[in-house]
Design a protein that fits this description.
It is found in: Cytoplasm; Nucleus. By secondary structure, the chain is an alpha+beta fold. The protein is built from 36 helices and 54 strands. The strands form 13 sheets. Strands 1, 26, 27, 28, 29, 30 and 31 form a 7-stranded antiparallel sheet that branches. The radius of gyration is 49 Å and the shape is elongated.
């Protein structure tokens, strides 16, 4: 579908002022400077060779040549009338040119010779003369075929390394076996057609007869990698044979015999085919050979009988550097052919104004695939092409996807929106009078302009007519003599502009159509080379691009004067971009240009550097990348263009495509993009970006029917119809019902609703504009109610009288699609229809059975006590009538309340069933039913005003609570019922000593049992270290003053102990019980404070040491060793590869990352790792966390002992134990001071932060043993607030 478009052309006509000018005989590219090295002569009248460099100037005249050297070149061979240049090659690295002459001389010309070197030097000579010569692509070997039938390989220093004789025995090298690829014999023609014929045996075998116009030439062609070379020569005057030699001079193969094979040969650089020319009586073919010498396809050059008769000289072939274009050189012209889908297209025909041309030479640029020079002996054209598709408008509603493909005298036209016909076929074939050079399609797609080398033809095209008719010629311009036509472009639908070059003028010329002809409008360029002309997407203004990247605009109203005054500079790309598009956005024109190196510009900004093709629509920039992605960019200011990342799974603006696919055209109306694969076939895709953009446009225009159909055909979630503009959707529900006329379509919309804002999840808007920011969105708190709100909105509309009859099915759907489904209301509605015997009753039942689970519908119908409705639902289901009919009959025979109880009980609605039992007055069944289904609370609420029944239910509830060990609630229930004998036991089980003893007293428990109860409770309080409560029990209920005082001393309540013993008249217990208690408590407190001090003195320095080690050598810390021999592939940086290790893999002794599938996953390993973490063994990775937690616990414990120490010191002082009080006070102060210092060291801001990896999206969190380590590392990164120390106040009496 792509054409070759001329984006640069220089015309050079050599001087004719000399009496005997030298003809141009050879040329070579200087790839370093993009300059052309030209060789002139020798001729029969002048045995002189001149070497000149064509300067990179737009003024291609004889003054543009820089003279390099000239010398006499007499022919040493008497058989030749004059010498001839067989090969001219330029070495850019040394500024040296090598010429190989037919007489046998090999000449080096140095443009910058060093001292001791000559400007022109004959470095070698072949006495027998030379037939052909060619340098290898790597410029390391020179292949020469001498007139003595010898093949020579020479190095760059012109030293012979291989010498091989071409002998007739070479034909025996290959034993060809053809399997008939592409032959008619191998095609299927039916079982009766030549069923026994061997397809490997052709009907006719070529003998290799020579063409009558063979020039007896020898030609050489290297493969692109320089590994093999092919030589086409005549063997013994009988047949032409292509020999293939390896780089070492070993013959690899020879070609099979081909009748009429001529001397042209060109090996495709990619290496798969060798091209040659075969002349037959009725046609001339370009034939292809494989490296093994077997034929592999062909194509016809499509010559008319007159052209075939006039063509009496041989042709030349030359592939370009990327193997995509084949140049065929005729005596008077050159043709450029490309291949797609195994069809060869004639894309360009290069002609010359001279009539006395005898040969045309073509030389491709070695590094720029589409740059070439085509020359004759007296003139030269330097051409630069662009491979681009000619497509029609991409602006709706004219985006028919019309594509025009040039193929010689045929123009293939396909409107892809109408018929997606793959090439080489097309919907329309337009025969042309002359080979096309360029094609343009008008804005509306109704006209077509075809530019040839001679004139412009304009055709009418009607794509809307069915069937699409062939284009009709409107008018053809007069021939533009003296001009070389380059490009054509439309402005609007009727104005055509043509850009031409001239052999006699420096600047290009601009022509404009008026009525039915072209009129000259003047020269453009101002002395600068022009690339071409183009228009905006809206086809309003004409733009011209120059080769330096400048873009000038020529406004339509000023087009009558194409001079410099009407041109204005509007943009300049940083470098030349031959493929240019423009679009008007917010009253500003955006210019996009794609360089041949893949850089895509937006004005002066570089958008991407890996673009392979692009196009623009009024809303999007669309381009493909070398990573095989199709990307969409919303159009805005050039500086604000947002390029999506390579994340097709997350971003609608990025999509994966087939490798090497290129954009042909885009059709926003059908939200489709047409791509062409490398082999040539087409693929139409519907990218989410275009589909969603179309849906959003339809929603904004309140065309919900269009948006719905787009969602339906493109499988887009229907929720976007609401979520894109929620408030607008809710306002226009009546409009939606009117637009979506089909009942099943509205059902589809309602059934796909769900409580999710898809505009923020699946289809998040990527266009950030003011309109997008103002768009209403769902309140996150109301998202859960979205479905119900929409269904209620539709019900409010559908239940109106004008919709109620026709939209009954939709009403049922709206009820069922609620969350949860409102099945009862829907079934009530069907029941009402059933009661009036409506004809749509069965249809409604069938529909609701389709939407919801039949079993659930059956149960719901029973739940509303509609047996007739349940029978109707059952009949629509797959239920067995032998099961449901007897059951429904049995229910029908029961009284109403008993029927409701039975139904609710079966449906699991025991609460309602209990109410039916109460209504029936069947209390004798209620206790058993309550116990069976644990309906105690429901029963209590039901009988809250009936004390008799309430107490019975409460007793059942109390027994139930006691059985499930809820003793507190059970004891309260027993006490409510005055069941104190059961209440005190439940209170005792709940460890509520006050309530238990109180209820035991009210229950008149015997004294012995009461004493036992009190003793048991007191002992349990002592075990719980609730000494104050225990002393109360001993004192009040057991009258044991001594034990009570001891309990108070254990709890450091010395003042209370003194008060009790003095109150009860036992002062002697102060010396017998309280003083020993003080001594014991002071000793235990002093010991406890000493342990705290020792723990701090041991753990704080160790913690600081661990942190220092981790900071200095993290890997050794996590490995538990202290060496520096850490492998180089260990890194602290998180990674998702498995080649290196992280701190986690270092510790776990496993390669990979936290995302690895080989981590320890079993619960056993997790428990073992948790035990390691709890122990915090010295040297382990958990030690730091263990030390931090231990220090925090110690400080918390010291704070808790503050009040105890205060009471202890006061008690010691009161009992004249001053020394002991001072010792306890000093120990407490030492611990407090040490805690303060430790907090300052441990919780300092300079503490080493834990290195923690990040679990990226798509990575698994660690499990098993690794999860414990991960949790420990997370805990280490958590910010810890330093604990607050409670101040200890000294007793002033101690000093």
């Amino acid at each position: 579908m792509r054409n070759l478009k001329i984006v640069g052309r220089s015309l050079v006509r050599f001087s004719t002022t000399e009496l005997d000018p030298l003809p141009l005989t050879a040329s070579a590219w200087d790839a370093a400077s993009d300059e052309l090295i030209c060789a002139f002569g020798p001729s029969e009248s002048r045995a002189v060779i001149e070497l000149k460099r064509l300067q990179p100037s737009h003024q291609r005249t004889e003054h543009s040549f820089k003279h390099i050297a000239s010398w006499d070149a007499p022919c040493p061979l008497p058989s030749l009338s004059c010498d001839a240049i067989l090969d001219l090659h330029h070495f850019s690295d040394s500024s040296t040119s090598c010429l190989v002459l037919a007489g046998g001389d090999i000449i080096l010309v140095r443009e910058s010779p060093l001292s001791g070197e000559e400007l022109v030097e004959i470095v070698g000579s072949v006495d027998a003369g030379i037939y052909a010569a060619a340098w290898s692509p790597d410029e390391e070997l020179l292949a020469i075929v001498t007139r003595a039938d010898t093949l020579l390989f020479m190095t760059r220093e012109i030293e012979n390394v291989v010498s091989v004789q071409l002998t007739p025995d070479d034909v025996k090298v290959s034993n060809h076996v053809s399997v008939g690829w592409g032959k008619s014999e191998t095609q299927f023609k039916g079982k009766r057609a030549k069923a026994l014929q061997d397809p490997t045996m052709p009907e006719r075998i070529d003998e290799g007869t020579l063409s009558p116009y063979d020039d007896n030439s020898v030609n050489i062609s290297w493969r692109g990698d320089g590994a093999f070379v092919a030589i086409n020569s005549i063997e013994q005057g009988k047949r032409r044979m292509i020999r293939v030699y390896s780089r070492e001079g070993q013959i690899d193969s020879v070609s099979e015999p081909v009748d009429g094979l001529e001397g042209a040969i060109s090996w495709r650089p990619s290496g798969n085919l060798v091209a040659g020319v075969r002349r037959l009586e009725d046609r001339i073919d370009v034939v292809f050979f494989e490296r093994n010498g077997l034929r592999h396809g062909q194509f016809d050059l499509r010559l008319t009988p007159e052209q075939l008769k006039d063509l009496t000289s041989s042709l030349k072939l030359k592939w370009n550097s990327d193997s995509n274009v084949l140049a065929v050189c005729y005596p008077k012209k050159a043709q450029l052919w490309t291949m797609s889908n195994y069809h060869y297209y004639l894309k360009q025909e290069v002609v010359f104004p001279e009539s006395d041309i005898s040969a045309v030479m073509c030389k491709w640029h070695p590094e720029k695939p589409l740059s070439t020079t085509v020359a004759t002996s007296g003139s030269l054209q330097i051409l630069e092409y662009l491979s681009a598709a000619v497509a029609g408008s991409v602006s709706p509603p004219y985006d028919f996807g019309t594509v025009a493909s040039i193929d010689g005298l045929t123009l293939h036209i396909t409107p892809l929106r109408v018929a997606n016909v793959p090439p080489p076929m097309s919907l329309l074939q337009l025969p042309l009078q002359h080979a096309a050079v360029d094609v343009a399609i008008s804005k509306s797609g109704t006209q077509l302009a075809v530019l040839s080398n001679y004139d412009v033809s304009v055709y009418a095209l009607d794509i809307t007519k069915r069937p699409v008719s062939a284009p009709r010629l409107l008018w053809r311009s007069d021939p533009l003599d003296g001009h070389s036509l380059r490009q054509v472009s439309f402005i609007g639908d009727d104005k055509i502009f043509v850009l031409t070059d001239s052999w006699d003028e420096e600047d290009c010329s601009l022509w404009e159509s008026q009525q039915v002809n072209l009129f000259y409008r003047g020269r453009v360029g101002q002395g600068k080379p022009i690339s071409g002309l183009f228009t905006c997407v809206d086809s309003k203004d004409l733009h011209l691009q120059f080769l330096d990247g400048e873009i000038h605009v020529l406004e339509a109203e000023k087009a009558s004067d194409a001079g410099s005054k009407s041109l204005s500079l509007v943009n300049k790309f940083p470098s030349f971009a031959p493929d240019v598009r423009a679009v008007c956005q917010d009253n500003k024109v955006l210019y996009f240009g794609l360089t041949k190196s893949g850089i895509l510009y937006a004005n002066e900004r570089v958008v991407v550097r890996n673009c392979t093709s692009f196009t623009i629509t009024p809303a999007h920039l669309i381009f493909t990348t070398t990573q095989h992605y199709l990307k969409f960019v919303h159009l805005t200011n050039a500086s604000e263009l947002e390029i999506p990342a390579d994340e097709p799974q997350k971003d609608e603006r990025c999509r994966s495509i087939e490798r090497g696919a290129r954009i042909v055209t885009v059709m926003p109306t059908t939200y489709s993009v047409v791509l062409q694969m490398p082999r040539g076939n087409l693929e139409t895709i519907y990218p989410r970006a275009l589909v969603l953009a179309a849906i959003r446009r339809s929603i904004q225009a309140e065309r919900y029917d269009h948006a719905f159909l787009t969602c339906r055909t493109q499988r887009v979630d229907m929720n976007i119809l609401h979520d894109h503009a929620p408030e607008q959707f809710m306002r226009n529900i009546a409009l939606i019902v009117d637009q979506i006329k089909r009942v099943d379509h509205l059902d589809l919309l309602l059934s796909q609703l769900r409580d999710e804002d898809v505009s923020e999840t699946m289809y998040k808007e990527t266009l950030t504009t003011n309109d997008a920011e103002k768009k209403g969105s769902l309140d996150p708190h109301s998202t859960d109610l979205k479905v119900n709100r929409i269904c209620d909105g539709f019900l409010a509309v559908l239940q109106q009288e004008k919709y109620k009859e026709d939209r009954l099915q939709n009403i049922i759907t709206a009820h069922v699609c609620k969350n949860p489904s409102d099945l009862e209301t829907a079934l009530e509605m069907i029941s009402q229809l059933q009661d009036v015997k409506h004809p749509l009753t069965e249809k409604a039942a069938e529909h609701i059975c389709f939407l919801a689970d039949v079993n659930k519908l059956y149960d719901t119908a029973l739940g509303i006590y509609k047996l007739d409705l349940a029978l109707l639902i059952a009949q629509e289901s797959q239920k067995d009538p032998r099961e449901y009919l007897p059951y429904l009959q049995a229910l029908n025979d029961l009284p109403l309340l008993r029927r409701k109880f039975t139904i609710d009980d079966q449906l699991g609605r025991q609460g309602k069933a209990l109410q039916h039992l109460q209504a029936m007055g069947a209390f004798e069944e209620i206790p058993d039913y309550v116990v069976k289904h644990s309906l105690y609370v429901d029963a209590l609420n039901m009988y809250q005003y009936d004390n008799v029944h309430l107490n019975e239910i409460m007793r059942l509830y109390a027994d139930y609570l006691s059985s499930i060990n809820q003793h507190k609630d059970a004891s309260i229930a027993y006490e409510y019922l005055s069941e104190y004998s059961l209440a005190w036991q439940s209170y005792r089980a709940a460890n509520l000593w006050r309530e238990s003893l109180s209820c035991a007293t009210l229950a008149n428990l015997p004294e012995a049992e009461f004493t036992e109860l009190a003793t048991t409770l007191a002992e349990s309080l002592v075990e719980a270290k609730d000494y104050l409560s225990a002393s109360t029990v001993y004192l009040d209920y057991l009258s044991d003053i001594t034990t009570s005082a001891k309990m108070l001393c254990k709890g450091y309540f010395f003042a209370e102990a003194v008060r009790i013993v003095t109150l009860r008249g036992r002062p002697e217990l102060i010396t017998e019980v309280i003083d020993p208690g003080l001594i014991e408590s002071s000793a235990s407190m002093t010991e406890f404070l000493a342990e705290c001090k020792g723990q701090l003195q041991a753990q704080v320095p160790r913690l600081l040491e661990v942190r220092k080690k981790k900071e200095e050598d993290p890997m050794a810390y996590y490995d538990g060793i202290e060496d520096n021999n850490i492998p180089d592939n260990i890194s602290l940086a998180p990674t998702d590869t498995t080649s290196g290790g992280t701190f986690m893999t270092r510790y776990t002794k496993r390669t990979g990352t936290v995302n690895t599938q080989t981590t320890r996953r079993t619960s056993k390993n997790r428990r073992r790792e948790e035990r390691k973490r709890a122990r915090g063994k010295k040297g382990s990775v958990y030690e730091e966390e263990y030390l931090m937690n231990s220090i925090e616990r110690l400080i918390t414990r010291v704070n808790g002992m503050n009040d105890d120490v205060t009471r202890l010191v006061e008690g010691l002082t009161k009992r004249r134990m001053r020394e002991r009080a001072s010792a306890v006070t000093q120990a407490m102060q030492d611990v407090i001071n040490l805690c303060k210092r430790s907090v300052g060291e441990v919780y300092t801001a300079q503490a080493v932060a834990q290195t923690m990896p990040v679990v990226e999206d798509g990575m698994e969190k660690p499990v098993g043993g690794d999860a414990v380590l991960w949790a420990s590392l997370e805990e280490g990164t958590r910010r810890r607030d330093p604990p607050v120390l409670v101040e200890f106040k000294d007793l002033s009496l101690l000093g």
